[in-house]
Each structure stands twice: as C-alpha cells, then as structure tokens.
Specification:
Length: 90
C-alpha cells in the first residue's frame, strides 16, 4: 500500500514544519523517527544521499526535505503529485 512517509528526528524544527504542512492539507502520513531505531539514519542516508531530516516520500517518490515539500506546495505541484500517486487529493 502506498503511503506518505516522513522520516524525522527529535528536536527537528523542519520536521515539525513538514508535518504541519501535511496536516493543513489533510494528508495522512507515517512518521518514522530515526533517533528511535539504531541504524535507520545511516540506511536513510544511503537511500537518499542526504544527511538531514526530514526526508519525505510520497509513495515511492522521494520528495526530499521540508524545503522541497514547501516548494512543491508553493508551485501547486504537491497536489498534482499526491493525485498522481494516490489517484486523488485527500
């Protein structure tokens, strides 16, 4: 099943902003805290080639971090991406 996944860390203001943006849009997501799972941060870095959190996936598509998510929202492309992945904007 396709999901929105948000990889976060403790005390991360950009993680909080990303979750708030998704919440405002009424989009459900799974939050995965990399601080609570040993080795997950390293695995995420290998998968995304990025060292920071949040890292956001919409379905299998790696959106990037908060700045990337916000840019998609500002250009209207976030709704397009969600619709393309899930078939509708929820």
């Amino acid at each position: 099943m396709k999901k929105i996944k948000v990889y976060t860390a403790n005390l991360c203001p950009y993680c909080t902003m990303a979750k708030k943006l998704l919440d405002r849009k009424g989009l459900k997501y799974e939050e995965i805290n990399v601080d609570k799972q040993p080795g997950l941060r390293q695995a995420l870095m290998q998968k995304t080639k990025r060292r920071t959190v949040p890292q956001i996936f919409i379905g299998d598509i790696h959106v990037g971090g908060f700045d990337d998510l916000y840019a998609l929202e500002q250009t209207g492309k976030l709704d397009e991406l969600v619709e393309a992945v899930f078939g509708e904007v929820s």
